[in-house]
Amino acid sequence: MAPAMAIQSIVDEQETEYQKGVKQLYEKGIKKLPRKYILPSHERPNITSNNGHQHQYQAPKDFATKNGGIKQNIQLPVIDFAELQGPNRAQVLKSLANACENYGFFQVVNHNIGDGVISDMIDVGTRFFGLPFEERSKYMSANMKAPVRYGTSFNQNKDNVFCWRDFLKLMCQPLPDVLPHWPSSPQDFRKSAATYAKDTKHLFVMLMEAILESLSPAPETAAFPTADGEVVDEMEKELMEGGSQLMVVNCYPPCPEPDLTLGMPPHSDYGFLTLLLQDDVAGLQIQHNDKWVTVDPIPNAFVVNVGDHLEVIFSNGRYKSVLHRVLTNQSRNRISVASLHSLPFEYTVRPWPKLISEQNPQRYRDTDFATFLQYISSCEPKRKNFLESRKIC
């Protein structure tokens, strides 16, 4: 074999290995991060100290429980769901509006989703990624509309540099139609994941009632129906009664050189709201006041973030979808479950008419999910590029 052909053969073989995911690489016991995963120096994780200087990020042995020196943490606004349903609703709505405007993130506690439902979802997710690759690979697909899809990185077909992450994506609506396509192993996966999907859908609906109420220009134009029987807009009906739900189970194995790569790159979520469940290993960072800060997990709480749809629909830019990313660490496996909720895939996304006026003109072009899929299929998605592409100058 000619030298050039031999080199190409080695490159092709390596590329095939990378497509199998980072769990495979970790299980092989690699000590050095392959070049495919090494970010350019200006894109690598770093921490800003109090004096404003940039420091290269060094993940501590167990940064779920240690401060890691210069690592900065943030206490997100906490929304008590029980208080939201009680006599203090008006005050909690103000806190919710503040969180969506100034953070784009908040944590929800006392949400009525049972501890058993949460622990079962983390457990079956962990066991799925513990299956042999041959079993996991059954669900690999290049079809982004497939009801179930196993893969690696962020967008493995377009990423020039891979992320240290494997994932399992599950379409959740309509549940009776998609459930037979979900993994049948572990044996209790479908039952646990379906219960979790239904419970998070209900929580999403309740949170959206509150968010729409917090956005309402005035009480007499309340966004959600009240006891007076006010009319609900078509978009609100679609969001509450139908809508899309995508569940993503993420696996971040220990990484040999976490200072050179990311679990996920800076990005915003395309949908309306994302409800994120984390295990006890920290890793999520959000961009706040131009700094990257780490969100410490609260046991059994949900981290909720504003998606691009909420920034565009209803809020017309008032509530912000914020950039976030995921760090890796050297010693502990991390599992998270993201439940992304939005309008039906075929629905046209546009700002809420009630918030459009001469003083507050429309800031985004109408769009739909097909346009989004075409965008991410044609380029490497980064940061908030898609949303920026829809802005009206």
Automatic annotation (TrEMBL):
Matching InterPro entries: DIOX_N (IPR026992), IPNS-like_FE2OG_OXY (IPR044861), IPNS-like_sf (IPR027443), Oxoglu/Fe-dep_dioxygenase_dom (IPR005123), Plant_2OG-oxidoreductases (IPR050295)
One Pfam family per UniProt: 2OG-FeII_Oxy
Domain of life: Eukaryota
Gene Ontology MF, one: metal ion binding
Ribosomal protein found in the keyword field: no
Record flagged with keyword Nucleus: yes
Fe2OG dioxygenase domain segment(s): 242-343
Places the protein is found: Cytoplasm; Nucleus
GO CC annotation: cytoplasm; nucleus
Keywords noted in UniProt: Cytoplasm, Iron, Metal-binding, Nucleus, Oxidoreductase, Vitamin C
Function in brief: Involved in the regulation of shoot development and salicylic acid (SA) homeostasis.
Sequence similarity: Belongs to the iron/ascorbate-dependent oxidoreductase family.
The protein's name in its UniProt record: Fe2OG dioxygenase domain-containing protein
